[in-house]
From TrEMBL:
The organism of origin for this protein: Xiphorhynchus elegans (elegant woodcreeper)
GO CC annotation terms, alphabetical: centralspindlin complex; cleavage furrow; midbody; nucleus; spindle midzone
Residues in Rho-GAP domain copies: 59-245
UniProt protein name: RGAP1 protein
Record keyword Metal-binding present: yes
TM segment ranges: none
Boundaries of every Phorbol-ester/DAG-type domain copy: 1-46
Length: 259
């Protein structure tokens, strides 16, 4: 299979490091990991090892993240990589919906895949990749309710930014790293003239997904009242500089796609 490396690991053939976000080759039987260029030198025969178990159906974001930093789930890395590879010239990225039936089908495939993620390159419409919100509400979303007050109640911009930086740094590590990874991705989307998705547009799309509501079962009135707050929180997060977010995921993240 061809996984994407979440933490730097040595190649089983040449011994040099495979960097974060790079595509590698992994034997489905013995789990040997190597550079794609080292495939011809792969030793044989191999000793089969037990297959990965599938992901849990419920849990917090940390249950899906790797054991070493940056703590960004493999599926998030794979989806972002695919979107940035062929989606940054698509008008209305994240606003234009993919076919609902295809989105549901790929959700099922990805959840069943466990450690060996199927390639998303076979998904013809990149909007389908953008439409798969498969992570639990308990994950990155609910953690962001901690910073809502800073984004909506502090009037001074400088004080608001300081409060946001402090609160983001106090998030659980997996939530913080994944949030940083997503914010850097959305900043790249906002800078694409072809996408026509500025910070305000992205905030409207991602507000409900990332921030969520103050209760598990909000009333229609609560949903209506929460919407402006959700948008403002994401807009404030996207106003923080690229280098702030980069500090959480490290320079290796830059290897995902050309900036």
């Amino acid at each position: 299979c061809s996984p994407q490396v979440i933490r730097p690991e040595p190649c089983g053939v040449c011994g040099s490091r495979i960097r974060f976000g790079k595509t590698a080759i992994k034997c489905c039987q013995c789990q040997l990991l190597l550079h794609t260029k080292c495939r011809e030198q792969c030793p044989a025969p191999c000793v089969p090892r037990p297959r990965h178990h599938s992901w849990p159906r419920e849990g917090v974001l940390a249950d899906f993240a790797p054991s070493t930093p940056p703590l960004v789930p493999a599926l998030v890395v794979q989806c972002v990589t695919e979107v940035e590879t062929r989606g940054l010239t698509e008008t209305g990225l994240y606003r234009v919906p993919g076919a609902e039936q295809l989105v549901r089908e790929w959700k099922r495939r990805l959840l069943r895949a466990g450690g060996a993620l199927p390639s998303l390159s076979s998904v013809t419409d990149v909007h389908v990749v953008c439409g798969g919100g498969v992570w639990p509400q308990e994950g990155a979303a609910s953690a962001l309710t901690l910073i809502s007050g800073a984004a909506t109640d502090v009037l001074d911009d400088a004080a608001c930014d300081t409060a946001l930086r402090h609160l983001v740094s106090k998030l659980p590590p997996a939530n913080r790293d994944t949030l940083a990874f997503l914010m850097m991705h959305l900043l790249r989307v906002s800078c694409s003239p072809e996408c026509k998705m500025d910070v305000l547009n992205l905030s409207r799309v991602f507000g409900p997904t990332l921030v969520g509501h103050s209760s598990a079962n909000p009333t229609p009135l609560a949903i209506m009242e929460d919407t402006p707050r959700q948008c403002k929180v994401v807009a404030r997060l996207l106003s923080l500089p690229h280098d702030f977010w980069k500090g959480f995921v490290g320079t290796e993240q830059e290897n995902l796609v050309p900036v």
